[in-house]
Amino acid sequence: MINRIRELRGERGWSQADLAERLDVSRQTVNAIETGKYDPSLPLAFKIARLFGLSIESIFEPEPQAATPMVSRHPME
Amino acid sequence: MINRIRELRGERGWSQADLAERLDVSRQTVNAIETGKYDPSLPLAFKIARLFGLSIESIFEPEPQAATPMVSRHPME
DNA sequence: GGAACATGTCAAGCACGCTTTACATCCTAA
DNA sequence: TTAGGATGTAAAGCGTGCTTGACATGTTCC
């Protein structure tokens, strides 16, 4: 999942700590999401979208494509 | 987090198992999300929205309001 | 040089998202 | 009446989302 959070935060001149406070999460959480360590929960994604006044779809984008594996998704059936 | 999944699924005449298969998750996951036991991950929310051809915002809605607790969120600081 | 801030990262711990297996109930069809 | 589908729920297990605390680095400003 790719996101534009760092860009949106930068436009507003906020530090990761500033954003974390506005979202009521830890600074490490903001950093982990920006650096792609993990995706936010759906409720947090809503908070982020509302804070920036944008839709979730305009901030987050599912991975280019988690290519369908060469093996069956339902082996031995 | 409130969602309209059961309604959208019903309109299409799909069982929970049908929907689960289309989303590539277990039937219990669909059931748990419909019955409000937990919220889907952000990637699954995207899958759901795309399957129904709707925006995430038009399917999910953050709780009416998780009322601000009477106690400080940052005690002893 | 030293203080202060911004960012990145690690570790431990807890709660949640999702899995498989299994069982119970309800409803409809034959 | 029995079989089958649809739904609800439970337990155990694994990985992720988020927390606090801590430390390292780079930058800026005195």
TrEMBL record, chains A, B:
CDD domains: HTH_XRE. It comes from the Bacteria. Residues 5-59 form the HTH cro/C1-type domain. Keywords: DNA-binding. The keyword Nucleus does not apply. The keyword Signal does not apply. Coiled coil: none annotated. SUPFAM superfamilies: lambda repressor-like DNA-binding domains (SSF47413). PANTHER family: DNA-BIDING PHAGE PROTEIN, TRACRIPTIONAL REGULATORY PROTEIN-RELATED-RELATED. This is Helix-turn-helix transcriptional regulator.
